[in-house]
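User: Predict structure, ligand uridine-5'-diphosphate.
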Amino acid sequence: MFDYIVVGAGFTGAVLAERIATQLKKRVLIIEQRNHIGGNCYDQYNEDGLLVHKYGPRVFHTPDKQIWEYLSQFTEWKSYQHKAAAYVDGVLVPIPFNLNSIECLFPKYLAEELSRKLIELFGYGSKIPILELRKTEDAELKLLADFIYNKVYLNYTYKQWGLKPEELDEYVTGRMPIYITRDDRHYHDKYQAIPRFGYNQLFKRMLNNSNIKIMLNTDYREVVTINHHTKQVKFMGHAFEGKLIFTGKIDELFDYCYGELPYRTVDFNVKVLQKEHYQDIACINYPNDYDFTRVTEAKHLTGQVHPYTAIVEEYHRPCTRKDVPYYPIPQQQNLAIYAQYQQLALEYPSIILSGHLADYHYYDMNVAVAMALSKFDQELQLQKSLLSTGR
Ligand code: UDP
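Assistant: Predicted complex:
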């Protein structure tokens, strides 16, 4: 009945299903274990009628016109320039840490001196990862780097990952470098917005195609079996001759044969407040205070007008098999296990792996979309070459 089975209805699975259905005109079955599409981007109205991002705040941003135009087929946008802040020594300062943050925290003469040195050394407008800044030899900048490291990164990273910044691959804290600028926006990408009618609506429009069928509330293992000796895939007990696109956990797919890959999960504590607003911006980080990492007020993202507001506190902890695996943990020993799974996957020609769980790498939404589009292009080329050789 189906040419492709897609496991997972997040951005990766949805983009691939949409492309296959509309460009290859093939039939796709999406199998999703949750009771909704949209993966971790899913947003929903709570019982008070407030639109909340169920799995944490989602701000879409990309420098890439092609990605922007691709998604614009499925949604209109509400312009939004994301700003975040953090409490440091009781003072609310812009995050990512920038020249304005320095000015908030240090006496004027010192702030001016530090800013001058940063601009001289790195250039105005540059972005410097904290672990890079700590390598500086200038004594004053070294003091600044240690200050930022201790007050912004160390405890926040420990809360989020259970590890120190230097125990993780440098790209983790590199995702949020120090900005040598007075531009307070969190992202500086050309395209930045929130789907006007929510992410859920975007996904619904993306998957609204007669070639796409969706099976919700279904663990793929209930209907798909993989014989790891013959590499054959079965669907509902019958040999499946099509392709299986898998966006779930790579270690689970291969029955944990090289051991379990660790992930971090997040508990979201949602509070509905009977007032219009709680904080002035969408996200406030608490690197050193409390046990949660940040508080998000979704109304700043969604633009919803409502007499009440909802805030969400995020608590991170190790992930068990029953939890939602949000963050793969990029440490050398885990990446070595992942590399073994990746090698093994090459022996399964009918299985395509894509997405942050299958790649064991944390992606922003725009990157997940770009990678799924490029996987589709590979598949398209393959189908074309099979067609031209008559196979
Ligand atoms: N980070 C931090 N303090 C902050 C914000 C971020 O130490 O106030 C670190 C933390 O290790 C985090 C990384 O920077 O994992 C990347 O931050 P980002 O905001 O991109 O995290 P995400 O939103 O993806 O959870």
